[in-house]
Amino acid sequence: MPQSKRSPCPISCTLDLIGDRWTLLVIRDMMFFGKQRFEEFLESPEGISTNILANRLKLLEELGLAEKQPYSNHSRRMNYQLTEKGQSLRSVLKVITVWGLKHIDDTQIPQSNTNSRKCDNTFVN
Length: 125
Known about the structure:
This protein is mostly helical. The chain has helices at residues 10-18, 23-33, 38-42, 50-62, 84-87, 90-103, and strands at 66-70, 78-82.
């Protein structure tokens, strides 16, 4: 989490938190594809590396956008889910999706490639 703000601009401040190339994709996977486990995030077509994924999940937790819960007796096996604050980014992701479909050739809404327990693949509706 950044120590100081570059400016009071809300766009700048938001980008400082979630504006890298991976964070919104991890949020997308939780929000629309119901991914919860580390291994599930690794299956995404963008090919995030394990160290980057671990970093982004930790960041999302520190920002209060996601929370983790153990899912077995093994202390390192966690489920990640968006908090209410994280879910509030839904409209942002939908607007980005609509813009990309309209202005970037050969884009399409991604399809889930896992057997997620809960899938909400409603990007634009």
